[in-house]
Each structure stands twice: as C-alpha cells, then as structure tokens.
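Dear U.,

Please find below the material for section 3 of the report. The protein was modelled together with nicotinamide-adenine-dinucleotide; I have listed the sequence and SMILES used, followed by the predicted complex structure.
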Amino acid sequence: MDRYLITGGAGFIGSNFIKYLFENNKDIKVINVDKLTYAGNLKNLQCIKNNDNYTFIQEDICNRNSLEEIFKFYKPNYIINFAAESHVDRSIESSEKFIKTNVLGTQVLLECSLKSKIKKFIQISTDEVYGSLESGFSTEESLLRPKNPYAASKASADLLVQSFYNTYGLPIIITRSSNNYGPHQHNEKLIPKIITNCLDRRKVPIYGRGTNVRDWIYVLDNCDAIKKVLNKGSIGEIYNISSNIEKRNIDLVKIIIKKIKEVLQNKGINTEGINEDLIKYVTDRKGHDKRYGINATKLKETLNWNITTQLESGLEKTINWYIDNNLY
Ligand SMILES: NC(=O)c1ccc[n+]([C@@H]2O[C@H](COP(=O)([O-])OP(=O)(O)OC[C@H]3O[C@@H](n4cnc5c(N)ncnc54)[C@H](O)[C@@H]3O)[C@@H](O)[C@H]2O)c1
C-alpha cells in the first residue's frame, strides 16, 4: 500500500488534496503532518478524520528529530510538501517565519527523504517565483526573479530541492501553480475576503486601482495536476500549473459581486446592499507584482492535463461553500 506523507494538509490546498486522494484511490495511507498555525484548520478534514488509513500528526516540519521519527515509523513512499507560510502581506511585515518554514523546513524534509527509500518528493511551489511580467508567459526554463519575501523563500526552497536532485539523485519534482481558489481557503486571501465581506455587507478593500492581474485556478484542478505529476511526472522536472484565466483584481471583484447576487437570489435570500459600492480602494501593497503569467504547455502536452472548472462555475461552487458553512 502506498504511503503518502503530506505536510501542511490542514491548510487550503493540502486539505483539498488529501480528500481528492482518498476519493480517487482505495488502497493508500495518508500521514498528514501539520503544525496547525493560524492557517491550518482540522475542520477542513472532518469527513476523513475517522478513516483508518488517515493519520494526523501535529508537528512543525522544522523539528528535525520528530520528522526523523515520523519517517522511520511510517516509511512514506511519497512526500508532498504543501506546508508553508503562504500570505505575501504577512511576509512583508516579517519574513522570519517564511524563511524558517519555507526554506529550513523544506531542508529538513529533503534530508529525511534522503535517509528513507522514497519514490517521489513533490515540492509545491508557486508562479510567484518567476516575478512580475508585463506581458508574455514564464516557462519552466525562465529565470527566477522573486520580488517579495514570500516568493523569495519559495524560490530558495525550489533551488534547494533541485540541488538535492543534482547532488544526491533524490527523486524530486516541483510544481508551480498560479493563484488557487475554492472551498477551505483562509479569509485573509483575496477571493474569500471578497466573498465574506460582501456577504457581510462590509467594504471590500482593493489594493491600488485594482489593475494587478492574477491567473486563477480552481483548487481541484490544481489537485488533479499534482496527482498527475505524482503518478507520471518525470523525476527532476518542474511543471507549471495554470488555467490561463487572467483577471484584473477590479474585474474579478465585479464578477464575484454579480455571482454572489445570483447565488443568493437562487436561494431566495435578500441581496440588498450587495453592489459595487462595497469596493474600497486602499493604499497599494509594497512592491506589488503587476502580473504573473505562466505557460503550462509542458503539463498539458506531456501529462494530458487540463482544467475542468471554468471561473464562473468555480466561483459559484466557492460562494456556495462559504454560504453553506456560514463563514461570514
Ligand atoms: N494558495 C495559492 O494560491 C497557492 C498558489 C501556488 C502555490 N501555493 C503553495 O501551495 C502550498 C499550500 O498553500 P495553501 O494556500 O494551502 O496554504 P495555507 O496557508 O492555507 O496552508 C499552509 C498549511 O501549512 C501549515 N504549516 C505552516 N507552517 C508549518 C510548519 N512549520 N510545519 C508544519 N505545517 C506548517 C499550516 O498550519 C497550514 O495548514 C504552499 O506551499 C504555497 O506556497 C499556494
């Protein structure tokens, strides 16, 4: 039976990925190692907590002794490293935790993996490592030009992961995805903040003039891509994951406001006060990257992957989830 050691599995993408794994595989064991920072929430995994093939361990990936014990005891075949400090704004306030978890934590996992007989180590990275692009798209060969402390910590981790492949032959693969959205995302991130503030009739803060562009992927499309990379990806490679659905932040907010009204109307709920007057422009983020754009042709052509959820339907599912879970 394959054994998956997943770090950061109580967070947004990690929890969606664990559920996705169990839905698509019968004979697997999952060990979820998560420190449960403010971003981790075990409610995200309520539906599988009693599954005999699932184990949760509250631990910091920087804790080498504990991680060595966990590797020795559970003997995982696959390591998927989601654990990270993930919010750019927090990294601008203070980068220390970002360096510790994202870089040193990754180093601990790599060293533990070297001592174990693992089949694959998947590092979950981000399009932010390529930095801002006015136009065009970064490929896996593009230079890394991270522009904020979060992105710099992720780029550092990527280089470390690659060095373990080149130096020791550790079977690693890196995925770099664009912005994810969907159920279970923390309210501090853009889409949940827009949804929950609108539902509450609170102002929706938008940086600058809202002209920054991001590329949005529904979280389960990312999970599907990661699973394909896990099953069939080539060792030592990097795979960009993107839907190429690009939106200016201001346009995204307007789409979401319209969608929230539609969803509420369909449920027979009052939509009074939900309109574009809720948008409030605020002082721009320091060093705010203008646009990320990545080319995911390699993943599409070699692993036959594509998205199945378009923005409109993904947003509808996400809005419904926040309403149904009373998260506003
Ligand atoms: N969310 C996105 O849009 C996006 C896009 C591209 C890449 N990524 C990457 O995907 C991964 C997951 O992102 P997310 O949005 O789910 O993040 P998240 O912030 O929702 O979850 C992170 C999880 O890691 C855990 N964690 C943090 N520090 C830890 C530590 N020292 N030891 C163990 N666990 C720790 C937290 O408790 C939390 O459960 C991250 O590596 C992030 O860089 C995210």
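For the text of the report, you could mention the following: The mean pLDDT is 97.

Regards,
Y.
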